[in-house]
């Protein structure tokens, strides 16, 4: 379209306000960054297309992501149908208008080269039932007001509305919107040179470990822990068991506990819940909001806090637990045992689940990998067997009182040295 107006309708890419459906796999800030990259790709394409004017109808404030050559108008209206109708009215200068959104970064300048001869409107549908493009020769609120938006039949309803008004409609190719993580993956694979695609690849290999742990706890995706070399870490890949109620081996370990009990790295709370059912006062601590939420939803007590920060009952806990390989937290077993010795009372108990390999003493970082392809940044961790743990315990003045195995799991109990 050599003569006419190209309109981009968009939201300011602010975390928490855009691309919330991406947050099943990405943080709010990551989702906003993907939205911003998609918007920049779209704006750059529109800037390179042939047009007499380029307008950005924006909900929010422009930022450094906005290239030169665009007039900015604010959005007005309540629903999306009203905002679209208002954008056409506010941008109209007597020439045909084509409006696109910010969710199709794969858009090309050729797609926007509309030949209006013989047509009154333009429509490009999306694979999810919506539409990525709408063109009108002149604004007409009847073409938009009342059309149901954000449904799997919005595109069909919009086409029917245009035809009911007697408009001759030029259909453009169907594109895929970037609404879900799957959409982002498909677009990035098909169009690797996009800014959005490059960012997507970086984010895929640099997820925050806490995010993947949250997803695993929520059951939205399967997550495994591996070493840097990619080999699975068995003791950290049993999240299904962590989400289940305490099993027979757990209950055997808990029979050693003396209340009150502090469960370090409580996860979804199966241990704290089992202790509460026995009538033993217990508190779980974890840095995961979802873990704390799951624990409290079971009727048990939990606190969101790193173990190294100040905790309730310092030096008065009857037992401190490091179950499920949590001796590895932070990657320094001696430092973690020293902290447990500070938390427990002088005659208290520190119960540690160790690796079944007695000789294992490994402090290499781990990486969390999700079934959706995301990989976390390295997480400091340790894996120790009985012999290594005894060395670390001796260094912080904890002495062993019991060493036992149940099934494929191994445990040690320790007490402060008098």
Automatic annotation (TrEMBL):
It comes from the Bacteria. InterPro entries: Nucleotide-diphossugar_trans, SAM-dependent_MTases_sf, Trfase_1_rSAM/seldom-assoc. Signal peptide: none annotated. It holds the Pfam family DUF2064. This is DUF2064 domain-containing protein.
């Amino acid at each position: 379209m050599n003569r006419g107006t190209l309109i981009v309708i968009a939201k300011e890419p602010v975390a928490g306000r855009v691309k919330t459906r991406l947050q099943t796999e990405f943080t709010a800030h990551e989702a906003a960054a993907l939205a911003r990259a998609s918007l920049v790709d779209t704006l750059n394409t529109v800037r390179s297309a042939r047009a007499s004017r380029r307008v950005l109808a924006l909900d929010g404030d422009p930022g450094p992501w906005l290239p030169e050559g665009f007039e900015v108008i604010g959005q007005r209206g309540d629903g999306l149908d009203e905002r679209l109708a208002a954008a056409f009215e506010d941008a109209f200068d007597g020439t045909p208008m084509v409006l696109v959104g910010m969710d199709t970064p794969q858009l090309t300048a050729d797609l926007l080269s509309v030949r209006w001869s013989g047509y009154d409107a333009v429509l490009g549908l999306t694979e999810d039932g919506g539409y990525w493009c709408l063109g009108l020769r002149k604004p007409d609120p009847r073409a938009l007001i009342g059309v149901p938006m954000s449904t799997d039949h919005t595109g069909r309803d919009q086409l029917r509305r245009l035809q009911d008004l007697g408009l001759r409609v030029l259909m453009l190719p169907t594109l895929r919107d970037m609404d879900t993580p799957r959409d982002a993956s498909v677009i990035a694979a098909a169009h690797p040179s996009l800014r959005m695609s490059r960012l997507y690849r970086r984010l895929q290999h640099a997820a925050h470990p806490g995010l993947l742990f949250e997803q695993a706890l929520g059951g939205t995706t399967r997550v495994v822990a591996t070493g840097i070399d990619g080999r699975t870490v068995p003791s950290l890949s049993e999240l299904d068991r962590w989400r289940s109620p305490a099993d027979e081996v757990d209950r055997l370990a808990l029979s050693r506990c003396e209340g009150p009990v502090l469960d370090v790295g409580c996860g979804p709370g199966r241990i704290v819940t089992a202790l509460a059912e026995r009538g033993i006062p217990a508190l779980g601590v974890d840095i995961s909001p979802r873990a704390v939420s799951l624990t409290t939803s079971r009727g048990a007590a939990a606190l969101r806090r790193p173990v190294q920060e100040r905790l309730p009952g310092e030096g008065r806990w009857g037992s401190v637990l490091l179950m499920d390989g949590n001796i590895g937290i932070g990657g320094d077993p001696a430092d973690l045992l020293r902290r447990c010795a500070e938390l427990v009372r002088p005659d208290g108990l520190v119960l540690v689940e160790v690796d079944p390999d007695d000789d294992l003493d490994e402090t290499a970082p781990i990486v969390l990998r999700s079934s959706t392809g995301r990989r976390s940044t390295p997480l400091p961790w340790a894996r120790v067997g009985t012999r290594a743990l005894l060395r670390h315990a001796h260094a912080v003045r904890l002495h062993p009182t019991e060493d036992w195995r149940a099934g494929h799991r191994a445990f040690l109990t320790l007490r402060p040295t008098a």
